[in-house]
Amino acid sequence: MGPLVVVTDSVFPTLEPAREVLASIGAELRLAEAPDPARVAALAQEADALMVTYMPIGAELIQQLRRCRIIARFGIGVDNVDVPAATRAGIVVTNVPDYCIDEVSDHALALLLALARRLFPADRSVRAGTWSVRVVTPIHRLRGRVLGLVGFGKIARALAQKARALGLEVLAFDPYLSPEFVEAQGARPVSLEDLLQRSDFISIHVPLTPETRHLFNDEIFQKVKPGAFLINTARGPIVDEGALLRALDSGRLAGAALDVLEQEPPPADSPLLRREDVILTPHIAFYSEESLVDLQTKAAQEVVRVLQGQPPRNPVNPEVLEAVHARAGRSSQ
User: Fold this and answer.
1) What is the tens place of the pLDDT at every residue in 65-97?
2) CATH at residue 266
3) What is the tens place of the pLDDT at every residue in 27-69?
4) How many domains does one find in the chain?
């Protein structure tokens, strides 16, 4: 009997791309009936691998995984997985950091253009019977304005390339990359404070961690260039929505475009839903028909590698692999 791979939750119309990859090692793929910890635990106790989309995978559930060797995330961020608990259990966690680079960078650019050209207020005014440029003034020429990228990973670098083609100057803040690398990728490396003070558009591209949760708070918004626009296609809790509303009310920010929110979907009484200076999309920046196939395929390939005793390409906690390698070395001596 082949290995058992349990999918905790799925937003995909079909799991056939993943099933096809896993069939190469004779693995059985089972989808949990509901993303409920008790139901998933009952199904996954004997699983050799876990694949997860949005369901929170906490320490209590991880402790019940008797045979699991890998938790593979269908996505880039792993903030819904207790990675330290997985590490303690000797389970490698993987993600897919390169499946939707074009999609998210395209979406961020589309939001930037919609803000810059005030497309949504213009559309609403026409539908309401008003045909006038006055409803969208002032609009400034895009060429020569400044885009600041907070985080400079693969998606941000793709966005930088597209933005430069439109004549935008690109600044980037990323404390984990060398200034030489950032410059080689066509952006000017700056401090976060410098980026905030100089950018007409600020686009967020950092993972959600304890350090980045509410990174954009009242103190940060006080430092932004007056009249700047904020774009977030990363994770909702990076932005303190209360602070965002205050920055919009004060005029410090001219507008915001958010594909992600602190609570998804937002509550019906969220003030964000009533604002004309905020564009909202339902966490769709990652999506294309092609990206979903890539995502399933690459996540499943990580499972195959680990279950065959090979290192995964994108381990989030590589120290688990180092520990396994060390134990194997000692046992062979």
Assistant:
1) 999 999 999 999 999 999 999 999 999 999 999
2) 3.40.50.720
3) 999 999 888 888 899 999 999 999 999 999 999 999 999 999 9
4) 2
Q: Are 65 and 93 in contact (CB under 8 A)?
A: no
For 216, the 3-state DSSP assignment is strand
Polymer length in residues for the chain: 333
Give the residue numbers annotated as catalytic, written as ranges. Answer: 235, 264, 283
184 with 267, same domain: the answer is yes
Q: Where are the alpha helices (DSSP H) in the chain?
A: 16-22, 37-44, 59-63, 83-88, 101-116, 119-127, 154-165, 179-184, 192-198, 218-221, 241-250, 289-307, 319-331
Q: Determine the number of helices (DSSP H) and then strands (DSSP E) in the chain.
A: 13, 12
**pTM as predicted:** 0.90
Please indicate, yes or no, whether residues 85 and 23 belong to a single structural domain of this protein: yes
260: helix, coil or strand? coil
Q: What are the two backbone dihedrals, phi and then psi, of residue 45, each rounded to the nearest 5 degrees?
A: -55, -35
Q: How far apart are CA 285 and CA 96, in angstroms?
A: 15
Judgement on whether residues 228 and 184 belong to the same structural domain of the protein: yes
Q: What is each CA distance from 51 to 73, 318, 319, in whole angstroms?
A: 6, 18, 20
Enclosing H/E stretch for 147: strand 146-150
